[in-house]
Amino acid sequence: MKAPIRRPEQILAYRSLAKILGTDARTIWSVAPADSAHRAVQLMAAKDIGLVVVLDRDALVGVLSERDCVRRVLGPGRSLEQTPVSEIMARDVVAVTLDDTFADCLRLMHVNRIRHLPVMRGTRVVAVISVRDLLGEAVEHHRKIIDELERERLTIFTSTA
């Protein structure tokens, strides 16, 4: 029988992003500040993502979401092709490190009303984690707990029979 989840690092809230993301390399989809909003929207559509990081010579200078494009370009009636990313990107980026935990990420997303967090290693973006990624992790964690409880229940019922 598998060992039950008992140690703090096994509890979802305390799980670090390093554990959640694992060792698999993640592709970072990015645009430059001088790129058009149209290019950013095309990239997001092609990759089925809701946010791109804005990099200037590999340095994170902002983020741009689909919502930013709708509210800051289409809403005011500006042209996607003529609007540079630098004019509409969010500059005050909330980011996390691989040492931050599941709970840290959820709290930051909730407090800042955002759905994505760039994950940093020093000054370099190594991943972008979304609320959907965290939800998937929670679903998988709860599936494991349910399986564990089922095994314990079967053990109790079969040992008393």
List keywords for this structure.
161 residues, CBS-domain, single chain
Describe this structure in words.
The mean pLDDT is 90. The protein folds into two domains: 66 residues, CBS-domain (Roll), CATH 3.10.580.10; 68 residues, CBS-domain (Roll), CATH 3.10.580.10. The strands form two sheets. A three-stranded mixed β-sheet has the order 1-2-3. It is 43% helix and 19% strand. With 161 residues, the protein is of the alpha/beta class. A hairpin with a 2-residue loop joins strand 2 and strand 3. The chain contains six helices and six strands; from the N terminus they run H-E-H-E-E-H-H-E-H-E-E-H.
Summary, kept brief:
This protein is α/β, with parallel strands linked by helices and 161 residues long.
Write the layout of secondary structure elements.
Elements: H1 17-21, E1 30-31, H2 37-47, E2 51-56, E3 59-65, H3 66-74, H4 85-88, E4 96-97, H5 102-112, E5 116-121, E6 124-130, H6 131-159
Parallel strand pairs: 1-2, 4-5
Antiparallel strand pairs: 2-3, 5-6
* Helix-and-strand structural type: alpha/beta
According to DSSP, the number of beta strands is: 6
What would the principal axes of the Cα set say about the shape?
elongated
Q: Kindly report the CATH topology of the largest domain.
A: CBS-domain
Strand-residue fraction? 15-25%
**CATH superfamily descriptor of the largest domain:** CBS-domain
Mean pLDDT reading: 90
Taking the sheet with the most strands, its summary is: 3 strands, mixed
